[in-house]
Design brief:
Blueprint (H helix, E strand, L loop, with lengths): L5 E4 L4 E7 L13 E8 L5 E9 L5 E7 L14 E7 L4 E6 L4 E4 L2 E4 L2 E2 L6 E2 L13 H13 L6 E2 L6 H10 L4
Helix pairs in contact: 1-2
Amino acid sequence: HLGKVHISAGADGAFKIDVPVLNAASEARPAGPITVDAMMQDPEGKQVWNKTGILASGQERVQWSGGLASPALWSPSNPNLYKLIISLSSGDSEGSRFGFRTFETRGGKFFLNGHVIYIRAPLDQDFYPDTIYTPPSYEYVKNEMMQAKMLGFNMMRCHIKVPDPRYLEAADDVGMLV
């Protein structure tokens, strides 16, 4: 079955995909090659890339790299997200959403996709009225992010703990840096 798929995608359109396949060497797996299919969709749902890989005997992962000529970049004002769908011949599949973006520092300034970005970021203690540290729902967190954006913030600084995956998903969806 699939492990955690990792995607790196930069503002130049270059991407790398790492697909770990767990228990690939198991004696209980069916005989024959394991095929791994990958398909990428742009923010509108149009297929922009696809590949098929074969997991050779003894291999535990498939890796691809490639590039898109003019990707729709992710930014706080345009949170464009692509979707990668990975499927194994065993029937296991996973969908991951990601953005093409590059974040770096130069000369004491922050750059997002090659452009200077001024960070406006409150400290988010990440406490919730009824559930303390656990977000009550994705919708609740997304609404908080939208309210922060309406107040002029473009980043949330997480306090003390790693944020819930729904927190990170909402940030990607609304265009909030974390």
